[in-house]
């Protein structure tokens, strides 16, 4: 049956692909790419039965010896098996896999697929044997332990723990079998297993151990146990170079204490205590001033504390230790951009960016290549990835920023520079006015010459287009439109541009409340009341207590305070009280929220309330002493960053005082 679950647009597109593939098959029935393409078209339409039939008929035409291993034939068999699995024919897929196992090159894929199919068919003992075999191949793969758990179906926590205890004995140096039980253990048993895990990592010097344990920080009880253990390690290592004074055995090397302090800095940063975090990271830097990871963490601490300029300075220090590290260079450029150090960021970017040639059109060759080489599993995965590419968190983040920019451009459009010049001429003398007119004429003449050059270049490219077929793809599009900041900032229809970024989010990221709240903001400005109602209802179904949702419903809480003043300017005092409440019971009393409230007080959203803004700033400064946004009046951060991390002595003294 063709899929009814596909969106209408995709369903219509795949049907057109099917028609095209059928015509190609009629024109070139002897080519295997025609048969493969026809089968893939049915697969994309989720008509698995027809796709499987076509693949089977095509397989029968392939003359291959049962004892001979052929890569292309192997990939065809694995793709055929994938279609059977997606059709829900698990028994047939397992029989198919066992029948052609000897002719498949990718033995790991065979075993992993076999384990999944045995689980689907409830043949749990056989599935357990398969996953134990996979663990022997790679004891650090999380998926194999999860598969073994599904096969053994432990009745309680102790039976579940027994699975991992067996792995401890079998793979004594394995970290994953010691990490996974920490997700479900609690109390003393959790503390005992965590103690073993941390000691192994600190002794070996494993920098990512904090990232490995980050998911545990949702549980306050576990966080307290982590802190108790690691603080105890630091105290003991300082006094006797052992994890515990009662331990028997050889002393730990000095690097163990370094990694413990490195972890503690990240720990206290995570739980919102930047002062203690800075103490630990500064101690670690004093002992080992050449370790890049320490400077990275210090930069992150300052960033999370709200001092992005100081964060950029320390990230630049890290970059200076290894100027060839592309990751550090990109991180440094990112921090400089956040600190509004545009020129320094551009110079940093020049160290790791290269000239990239667009290859979008070349992907047409890739489509035919996959058909010929039978790399069908990867090809279908790529097609499915392209359908959901804008579901990626990075696209969501970029789209969110773009929508926010267009909303601000709609609310506060940039003024025309020419109009500003005209307004200034009223106060000019005749001599100054004549000088300005001459300057404007020269600029106009220069722009005209540049335009003529562009037109001449365009005509030349169009002439060459007929002669040079090799450059056809490049020349068809003509000269590319320049990305002129002034032109981009003065877009005529900012809301329409915002909708271009919103549409993929509405189709692919429906589960995020921000998608529907951004939709509300756009439709609110377009006065599309039914779409506003639709957006609010969808957001309410996801999280009915979200503060931004309340703002959208009646501009409540922080932004609701703006609406109180908007609806009735006489209620300014009440609006300010709502916005500036810093009661500890508030669930969203964080740095970002407080910065937004201060911005609302200063930009006139609640009327003239300078005294309230200053009082609120002082209160926030006590809560977030490192945040630049809440520094007292007259404070200026004189941080001048060079690309190699140099800074003035005054800045260094200021940083030490902070």
UniProtKB/TrEMBL annotation:
Pfam families (UniProt xref): NatA_aux_su
Biased composition (Basic residues): 436-445
Segments forming a coiled coil: none
Record keywords, A-Z: Repeat, TPR repeat
Superkingdom of origin: Eukaryota
Bias type Basic and acidic residues, positions: 420-435, 447-462
Residue numbers spanned by region Disordered: 420-483
Any Gene Ontology CC annotation: NatA complex
The protein, known as: N-alpha-acetyltransferase 15, NatA auxiliary subunit
Organism name: Microtus ochrogaster
Taxonomic classification: Eukaryota, Metazoa, Chordata, Craniata, Vertebrata
């Amino acid at each position: 049956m063709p899929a009814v679950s596909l969106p209408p647009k995709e369903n219509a597109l795949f049907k057109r692909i099917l028609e095209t593939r059928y015509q190609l098959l009629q024109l070139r029935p002897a080519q295997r790419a025609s048969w493969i393409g026809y089968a893939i078209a049915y697969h994309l339409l989720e008509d698995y039965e027809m796709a499987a039939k076509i693949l089977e008929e095509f397989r029968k035409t392939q003359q291959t010896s049962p004892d001979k291993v052929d890569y292309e034939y192997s990939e065809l068999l694995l793709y055929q098996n994938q279609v059977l699995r997606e059709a829900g024919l698990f028994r047939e897929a397992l029989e198919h896999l066992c029948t052609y196992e000897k002719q498949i090159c990718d033995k790991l894929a065979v075993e992993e697929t076999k384990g999944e199919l045995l689980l689907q068919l409830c043949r749990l003992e056989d599935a357990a044997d398969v996953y134990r075999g996979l663990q022997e191949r790679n004891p650090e793969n999380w998926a194999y332990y999860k598969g073994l758990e599904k096969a053994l179906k432990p009745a309680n926590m102790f039976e579940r723990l027994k699975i991992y205890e067996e792995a401890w004995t079998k793979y004594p140096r394995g970290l994953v079998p010691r990490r996974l039980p920490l997700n479900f253990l609690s109390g003393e048993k959790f503390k005992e297993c965590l103690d073993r895990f941390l000691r192994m990592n600190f002794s070996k010097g494993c920098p990512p151990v904090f990232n490995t344990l980050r998911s545990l920080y949702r549980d306050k009880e576990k966080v307290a146990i982590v802190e108790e253990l690691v603080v105890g390690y630091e105290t003991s290592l300082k006094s006797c170079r052992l994890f515990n004074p009662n331990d028997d055995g050889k002393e730990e090397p000095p690097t163990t204490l370094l990694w413990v302090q490195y972890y503690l800095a990240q720990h206290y940063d995570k739980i919102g205590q930047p002062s203690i975090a800075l103490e630990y990271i500064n101690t670690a830097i004093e002992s080992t001033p050449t370790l890049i990871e320490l400077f990275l963490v210090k930069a992150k601490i300052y960033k999370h504390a709200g001092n992005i300029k100081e964060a950029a300075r320390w990230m630049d220090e890290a970059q200076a230790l290894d100027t060839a590290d592309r990751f550090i260079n990109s991180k440094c450029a990112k921090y400089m951009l956040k600190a509004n150090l545009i020129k320094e960021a551009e110079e940093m970017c020049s160290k790791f960016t290269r000239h990239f040639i667009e290859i979008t059109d070349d992907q047409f060759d890739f489509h035919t290549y996959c058909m010929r080489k039978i790399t069908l599993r990867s090809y279908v995965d790529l097609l499915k990835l392209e359908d959901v590419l804008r579901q990626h968190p990075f696209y969501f983040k970029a789209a969110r920023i773009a929508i926010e920019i267009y909303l601000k451009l709609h609310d506060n459009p940039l003024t025309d520079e020419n109009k500003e010049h005209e307004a200034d001429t009223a106060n000019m003398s005749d001599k100054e006015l004549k000088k300005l007119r001459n300057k404007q004429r020269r600029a106009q003449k220069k722009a005209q010459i540049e335009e003529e050059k562009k037109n001449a270049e365009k005509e030349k490219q169009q002439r060459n287009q007929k002669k040079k077929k090799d450059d056809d793809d490049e020349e068809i599009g003509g000269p590319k439109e320049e990305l002129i900041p002034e032109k981009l900032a003065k877009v005529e229809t900012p809301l329409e541009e915002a909708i271009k970024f919103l549409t993929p989010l509405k189709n692919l990221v429906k589960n995020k409340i921000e998608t529907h709240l951004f939709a509300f903001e756009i439709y609110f400005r377009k006065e599309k009341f039914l779409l506003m109602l639709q957006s609010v209802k969808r957001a309410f179904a996801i999280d009915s207590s979200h503060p931004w949702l309340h703002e959208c419903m009646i501009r409540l809480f922080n932004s609701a305070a703006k609406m109180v003043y908007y609806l009735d300017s006489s209620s300014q005092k009440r609006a300010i009280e709502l916005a500036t409440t810093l009661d500890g019971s508030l669930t969203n009393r964080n740095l970002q929220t407080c910065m937004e409230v201060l911005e609302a007080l200063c930009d006139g959203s609640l009327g003239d309330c300078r005294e309230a803004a200053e009082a609120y700033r002082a209160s926030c400064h006590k809560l977030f002493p490192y945040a630049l946004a809440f520094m007292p009046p007259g404070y200026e951060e004189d941080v001048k960053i060079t690309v190699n991390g140099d800074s003035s002595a005054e800045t260094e003294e200021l940083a030490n005082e902070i």
